[in-house]
Structures are given as structure tokens and as C-alpha cells.
Amino acid sequence: MLQLSEFLPPRPESSWKLIRQAGVDNVVGVLNGAEQDQRMFASVGSAGWKPDDRDEVPWSVAALKHNMEIYEKWGFTLIATEDTAPMDKIRLGLDGRDEQIDQFIEQIRSLGHLGIPTMAYNWMAITTWGRTDTRLVDRGGAFVTGYNQKIAQAGPALAPEGEISREQMWDALDYFLKAVVPEAEKAGVRLAMHPDDPPQQIDRGVPRIMSSVASYRRLLEMAPSDYNGITFCQGNFALMSEVIDGEVAIPELIREFGTAKIPFVHFRDVKGTVEDFRETFHDNGQTDMAECLRAYHDIGFEGAMRPDHVPTLEGETNDRPGYEMLGRLFAIGYIRGLEHAAYGHPSAR
Ligand SMILES: O=C(O)[C@@H](O)[C@@H](O)[C@H](O)[C@H](O)CO
């Protein structure tokens, strides 16, 4: 059984009932007011979520326990977090990174203490996922997000050209892994690196190093441990040059990395290349999603999987591009259907 999950901030809304009704029992959470909670929609120019004013360190045991209780009231189990304390000094190897690493370790320990097995993070310094459009018209008038590299890169620089080097970011990653992977092992919490979105080499002066299949192989070699793993975000892997050039397909990558390196999956798809792409409904992109589920079944994957970005459907405001509600329901049903086809109906397993 997959641990089918949804991505929810610890701030309930009545629409959470729909997710329960669609058959999802698990939550991947953000941390109230932490890095992704703040960057999540700001980076695509939208207002999105607002943190609650709470007197708690968001990555502490107390705050996470509070979040768990909120989710539990609605019938959900928190099985992963996809948010961290601020990490840019760590990512860039700047002064002050040791304090940020201490906060990261505090979160690992908090999760371990509470029995939450997975912690996703990313190596995107300064911003998070980026799009140039959040209102491209798709099937039946639904809106999807899209990216055009020329338009994006004509925007204001995030850092002066040449100031940050790729090697600086790789060295910083090495320093970080040496500090945190042993802690993750001790706490029993699997780290899961999310790819750069879009997986391009540089974003307005800031190198993006987690943007190819080769970079993931390098990450895994840097700290060989089942606790140094991947958020296998299919939509981003689908845009990496090795996949676009036909050297390797997504199902083959699933088989290559295996359950030992994939604790967590983001299920979504795209059409296009990293220079110019749009997101799609889950049944309508350029990846063979049915074959992906067969690959997950073959490797014995029973971890967390959540739909990632979904189209905005009729009647929705599009205040939260990629994360409105109706598209999630479609995605959840689609994943469940493919899961039953690949893994067998529960009664037959
Ligand atoms: O592929 C992506 O960009 C996503 O997974 C992000 O939207 C992610 O959910 C947020 O940055 C929060 O981690």
C-alpha cells in the first residue's frame, strides 16, 4: 500500500473533509511560518497561505506536536514534513550556517521523537519553485502553471552574476550532509532532497545544482546512507536533460534509485522542456504514469506519495496556483486507480 498523502499547512479548512472523503489518511505538512510556508506562493506571485501567529519555534517538538494534534482531529496522520527552518546560509556556505544546521538538526530530532519518518528539503537558495504564468488555459478551461526561461531570466537578478559558484554550493552540500546524515540515522528520519524547480542550471545569478539525474547520483554517492534520500518529484525529473534526451525514462529511474533512496514521491507531470513547459492534469502529460506505478510496485515502494501541483478548476480563485482543491481530488482518484491496477486491489493483495 502506498501512503497516499496530501500537502496541507497546519491550519484547517473545511475543504480538508473532501480530502478525507477521497480516501487520503496521511498528511505531508509545512511548518507554521517556516521557510517553505513563507516562500510557497510568494515565488509564483500569489498570496496563498498566511501563517498563524503562534508563540512556538516551528521546528520544535512542541510545535510539531501541536500540528500533529490538529491533523489528527481531522483524521489525518502526519507522516512527513516538507519545510525547514531557513537554510540559505547552509545552501550557500555562508557565515552563520552552523546555527542553521543546528536548527535543521533540531527538526530531525523533533521528527524522530514524534515518530514522523520523513523530512523533505531542497537546495534552492533565495527562492523556491518559479513560474512565469499561473493562468495558462488547459483542458476545458482549467488553469495550469507554466514556465518560459527567456521571460524568467529577463527578470531582476537574485544575485550578481558570478558571485555564487556551483562548486561553492556543492561544497556547502557536502559540509551539510556530513553534519546531518548521522543525526538522521540516529533519529530514524529519512532526508529527502527535492529537485530544483525548474531543474535549470542557474536562476537569475543563483546556481541550481539539484537539476539533473547526474547531480542526484552525485548526492547519493556523497553520503551513502538510506537516510540520505530523494523526494522523487516526477514533474521535475521529467524535465531533466537525461530524461528529455531519452537517455533514461522516469520508470527506469524509479528502479535505479529503489526504495532505499526514495522515501517520498511527488506525483505530477508536465509538457515541454525546461526552456518552456506547462504543467498538466495527471493523466495528460508526457510521462507514462501507469508504468511509473508499475515500477513503484516492482521496487516494493510503500512510502509517502502525494499529488503535487494540480490544475485550478471551474469556480476556484487560483489564489494558490497548483494547490487548489478540486484538481487534488481528481489527482487522488487517478493515483488510487493506478495503484490498484499496479499493486492489485487491497482484497486481492
Ligand atoms: O515541485 C515543486 O515545485 C513543489 O513540490 C513545490 O511546490 C513544493 O511543494 C513547495 O516548494 C513546498 O515544499
From TrEMBL:
Pathway: Carbohydrate metabolism; pentose and glucuronate interconversion
Pfam families the record matches: UxuA (PF03786)
InterPro entries for this protein: Man_deHydtase (IPR004628), Xyl_isomerase-like_sf (IPR036237)
EC number(s) given by UniProt: 4.2.1.8
Gene Ontology terms describing biological process: D-glucuronate catabolic process
Reaction(s) the record says it catalyses: D-mannonate = 2-dehydro-3-deoxy-D-gluconate + H2O
Gene Ontology terms for molecular function: ferrous iron binding; manganese ion binding; mannonate dehydratase activity
Protein's UniProt keywords contain Metal-binding: no
Keyword tags: Iron, Lyase, Manganese
Source domain of life: Bacteria
Key word RNA-binding present: no
Cofactor(s) the protein needs: Fe(2+); Mn(2+)
Top class in the EC scheme: lyase
Known role: Catalyzes the dehydration of D-mannonate.
Family membership noted in the UniProt record: Belongs to the mannonate dehydratase family.
Name of the protein in question: mannonate dehydratase
